[in-house]
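Thread: DNA-binding response OmpR family regulator, structure

OP (GT): Posting the sequence first so everyone is looking at the same thing. Length is 219 residues per the record. Can we get the structure tokens written out before standup tomorrow? I want them in the notebook alongside the other entries.
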Amino acid sequence: MEKILIVEDDVAVSDLIRLNLEIAGYDSRQAFNGSEALQLIAGYAPNLILLDVNLPDKDGFEIMGELKSCNLPVILLTARGSVADKVKGLRMGADDYIVKPFESMELIARIEAVLRRYGVKHDQLVFGELEVNLEERIVRSGNLVIDLTMKEFELLILLIRNKNKAMSRERMLELVWGYEYIGETRTIDIHIQKIRKKLKLEDHIKTVYKFGYRLEDHK
């Protein structure tokens, strides 16, 4: 399991990131200032750092300067949207730069892309006879390629990464559609029906009464 250090002084934002990383299958630790982050790195040995630029003691650029010898991938998180800040971060060695607020799926996708570049993250998920290539966005069952829409594909990834866990419709909408959906949740039911049929997962995707769905691994 890949390890990610979250360096973010806003506790609510940090907790939300950690929850999303847990759902996506990552191990994570939290640091709320630069000094704490630098102390954690040696013992935790993260595979990637999510680093907020605006921290109470040292800003993200200062911390990046102290991390040069560690050769760790860094994604900068900031509310700043100026081109100058982006250029500064990238020139200092940041692997990516994401401006807050951001959607959960966008953050996970950027993390996956950086980890793949470093040879840490594999670009394939397997469930039974299904093989899901994350980079090519292709689903195969044996030699057969199965066409999925973008949302069907992302929903399948979410289910596989959380196999044997019950997930609410609301949570799936938030993670895949990128917002908190209020009211009608039938869009999830429609997409689940299509995934079940296309991938022959009728016996694996179980309905959790008045809650959501669970992808069951029968091994």
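GT: Both are above now. Quick notes for whoever picks this up: Helices lie at 11-23, 34-44, 60-66, 83-91, 104-117, 150-161, 169-177, 186-199. The mean pLDDT is 87.
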